[in-house]
Specification:
The complex is a heterodimer of chains A (183) and B (534). Chain A is mainly alpha-helical and 183 residues long. Chain A has nine helices and no strands. Chain A folds into two domains: 114 residues, RNA polymerase sigma factor, region 2, helix turn helix motif (Rna Polymerase Sigma Factor, Chain: A), CATH 1.10.1740; 68 residues, Winged helix-like DNA-binding domain superfamily/Winged helix DNA-binding domain (Arc Repressor Mutant, subunit A, Orthogonal Bundle). The longest helix of chain A is centred in the last third of the chain and has 30 residues. Chain B is extended, with a radius of gyration of 28 Å. In chain B, 31% of the residues are buried. Among the domains of chain B are: 34 residues, no CATH class; 73 residues, no CATH class. In chain B, the strands form four sheets. Chain B has a nine-stranded antiparallel β-sheet with strand order 2-1-10-11-12-18-17-14-13. In chain B, strands 3, 9, 15, 16, 19, 21, 22 and 23 form an eight-stranded mixed β-sheet that branches. Chain B has a four-stranded antiparallel β-sheet with strand order 5-4-7-6. The chains are: A mainly alpha (183), B alpha+beta (534).
């Protein structure tokens, strides 16, 4: 069904794009929101993503990547472009590296929720963070994570393992402290 | 939440069972991560609003006349236009310009003819400015002598992480095999075979086909036990489709290899006023008096001009890709008679050289020709010394390939094939019948820091660079001393082409192993290697 929609779009029957939109909009929004931490910005970038996809779908080449991989790459680029176009944050790829004293806005509830893990997540590289966001928060299977990231399942699993080992190491002193305090 | 924690823990144990020792802390880490998950409910009003905006955009695009791939390139489309318009070419019309105008009506075409018969002339003659509408002499008329501009700033193209997506280098593939009594006897489905990319590290997302029901990591039964059977399951003969992820290790057996600290990365850019520049190239093919100015401002993607004379050519200009393709105007070429003798390679080369010289085609960045390997495979023996060709069916054409070389380095596609200009020579008429992939781009180059040897070996052994035709997992593959080539990679949105210095490692062909791929390609740029994520 998806392939038929894509082929139709590439033939110029763009009204079938709506089916692709409906299939992916929720996940794309979530993917972006977890990166930018702000509802309105996530909506803007989701909009940018689908507009770009619509305008460029004729250039999409299924032999190079799945549609899902392609779409997520557009979303990823939209986020990166957003931060790189902002002089104050030009070296950032997402909002995780932004300290709280900058003027970048975060939704209050997002900020409160991530408080306990923010410091650890900040230390990860953007790609490592992405594996965690997709597998743990996004609840995607590794097969889906691999598609989204354009990698093999094996390399995503390996990356996930390395991140967890790193977090395990970082968390251990904190947990030890908590245990001591609880005694 | 407990189920989620358990599910993630099981993932981890499947990857590395030794992690079970750290279960208490890992469970706590996962719990913390899950607790920290923000609510990400999407606003339904936003979804509806964006849908409305997209629908409006679709309407707008239709009104503006989006040109579809099919309309632009399908030969059938062109053939249909030609069938209608060619009869009009008789008599006074010497040149017919076929134009695809971007329009809602896909069949809309515009026919324009010049009044006088125009014979192709050498383009080195001066062209009167004004006939063209713009000063054509201002344009470089050495066709395809691509310029390379070195940029002052290092790493001027910025982060190239987008390209890592395209290389992916992760190689999973889906194919189908016929299995009889548990043994693979060959591919049973040519469409599967054709969907498998060529040699080299290839970007294929897993799974390859989104709608394919095959599971990933499912090798065929002769290799591992968990093969998934597809529809046709008969007791003796079975078609098995599987998607394999192959995880080989590589042993470097070559000489110590010195890497420069800085490497040049190239980026193709459309020349300034690219449309005019591309149109100006036609001056080299005798279109001096055609009023091509009308096409400068038209919103067209592709333009075809046909010479209306014996042995005339079609010239297809693609304004998006800045390319020119020259092909036979077949209706004007006499049907070739079978040939009795083959011209010598020297004669063939002279035919091509003359064609290039007459049409001012300067291939500065291209190397010496090689005869197309498929042609050689089929007909190469005819040129063997002492070969008896009296009974042989002689070919009607030969293809010569001119490889693109930058800094003396060949440029390869992701599938390991060489980027080249392809010239076909009609052996019966002893004329060039087509030239493909003539590009009118300019390139920029800037230096980047090269990945070091350690990073390359780490990336190589991370399992990212898979070997195409060896189905067993975990093979130890020996690699010989590499050469540096340039890998052509489009950016993520398929727009710009980058050329990335890349190591091409020959595979040492060990006895008893049937290697059909002879090399592994490893980009020399860390962000393309994606080594940070390893």
């Amino acid at each position: 069904m998806e392939n038929q929609c894509i082929e139709a779009c590439q033939r110029g029957e763009l009204n079938t794009f709506g089916t692709l939109y409906e299939k992916y909009v929720k996940n794309i929004y979530q993917f972006i929101y977890f990166k930018v931490h702000q509802k309105e910005l996530a909506e803007d970038l989701t909009s940018t993503t689908f507009m770009k996809a619509l305008k460029n779908i004729k250039n999409f080449n299924r032999e190079k990547a799945s549609f899902k991989t392609w779409l997520y790459q557009i979303a990823r680029n939209a986020v990166i472009d957003h931060y790189r176009s902002n002089k104050q944050t030009s070296d950032l790829e997402d909002a995780w590296g932004v300290s709280d004293d900058t003027n970048i806005e975060r939704d209050t509830d997002f900020k409160m929720k991530i408080e306990a893990v923010q410091e650890y997540m900040k230390k990860l590289k953007p790609e490592q963070r992405e594996v965690i966001l997709l597998r743990v928060w996004g609840e995607h299977s590794f097969k889906e994570v691999a598609q989204i990231m354009g990698k093999t399942e094996a390399s995503c699993k390996m990356s996930f393992k390395r991140v967890m080992v790193k977090l395990n190491k970082d968390f251990t002193p904190l947990l030890a402290l908590l245990l001591l305090l609880n005694k | 939440m407990k189920n989620r924690i358990q599910s993630i823990l099981q993932d981890l144990y499947a990857i590395d069972p030794s992690l079970k020792q750290n279960e208490a802390v890992l469970a706590k880490v996962i719990e913390k991560l899950l607790e920290a998950k923000p609510s990400s409910q999407i606003d339904h009003d936003f979804v509806a609003q964006l849908k409305t905006e997209l629908d409006a955009e679709v309407v707008l695009m239709a009104e503006e006349g989006i040109e579809t791939k099919e309309n632009a390139t399908a030969p059938g489309f062109w053939d249909n236009i030609r069938r209608v318009l060619y009869p009009l070419a008789s008599g006074a019309f010497a040149l017919i310009l076929l134009v695809v105008i971007v329009n809602n009506d896909p069949d809309y075409t515009q026919e324009i003819a010049t009044e006088d018969s125009i014979r192709p002339e050498l383009a080195v003659e001066s062209t009167e400015a004004g006939i063209f509408g713009f000063n054509a002499d201002a344009w470089e008329r050495k066709v395809f002598d691509m310029q390379i501009a070195e940029l002052d700033q290092n790493e001027a193209f910025g982060a190239l992480t987008d390209l890592a997506f395209e290389t992916g280098a992760d190689y999973a593939f889906t194919t189908a095999y016929e299995v009889i009594d548990g043994a693979i006897v060959g591919s049973s489905d040519p469409s599967f075979e054709s969907s498998v990319p060529g040699t080299g590290p290839v970007v294929v997302s897993a799974p390859l086909n989104d709608d394919n029901s095959t599971d990933s990591n499912t090798p065929p039964p002769a290799i591992a036990a968990d093969a998934e059977l597809e529809a046709d399951t008969q007791p003796e003969t079975t078609t098995v489709a599987y998607q394999a992820v192959i995880d080989h290790q590589y042993a470097y057996q070559g000489e110590p290899f010195d890497l420069d600290e800085d490497i040049y990365v190239y980026r193709a850019v459309a020349p300034e006023n690219s449309r005019e520049a591309l149109l100006a190239l036609l001056l080299n093919f005798g279109f001096n008096e055609a009023d091509l100015q009308v096409y400068v401002d038209l919103d067209i993607k592709e333009l075809t001009l046909s010479q209306d004379e014996a042995f005339g050519y079609d010239f297809i200009l693609n304004f998006e890709e800045n390319t020119l393709k020259i092909g036979q105007n077949k209706s004007l070429w006499p049907e070739p008679s079978p040939i009795n003798e083959l011209p010598s390679i020297k004669t063939i080369q002279a035919i091509v050289d003359d064609f290039f010289a007459e049409n001012n085609i300067i291939l500065t960045h291209y190397g010496d020709y090689a005869i197309n390997p498929e042609w050689l495979l089929e007909f190469g023996y005819l040129y063997d010394e002492g070969a008896d060709i009296s009974e042989a069916e002689l070919p009607s054409y030969i293809n010569l390939n001119y490889p693109l070389l930058f800094d003396q380095k060949p440029v390869l596609n992701l599938d390991g094939t060489v980027v080249k200009i392809e010239v076909r020579v009609d052996l019966a008429h002893k004329k060039v019948s087509s030239v493909k992939n003539l590009r009118a781009e300019v390139f920029e180059k800037t230096t980047y820091q090269s990945a070091n040897w350690e990073a390359i070996m780490t990336a190589l052994n991370s399992g990212q660079f898979y070997y195409k035709a060896l189905f067993e997992s975990n093979k130890l593959i020996s690699l010989d001393t590499p050469e540096i080539v340039l890998l052509s990679l489009p950016d993520a949105e398929g727009g710009r082409e980058f050329l990335i210095p890349t190591l091409k490692f020959p595979i040492v062909n060990e006895e008893g192993i049937d290697y059909s791929q002879d090399h592994i390609l490893v980009p020399l740029l860390e962000e393309v290697l994606n080594v940070e994520s390893i």
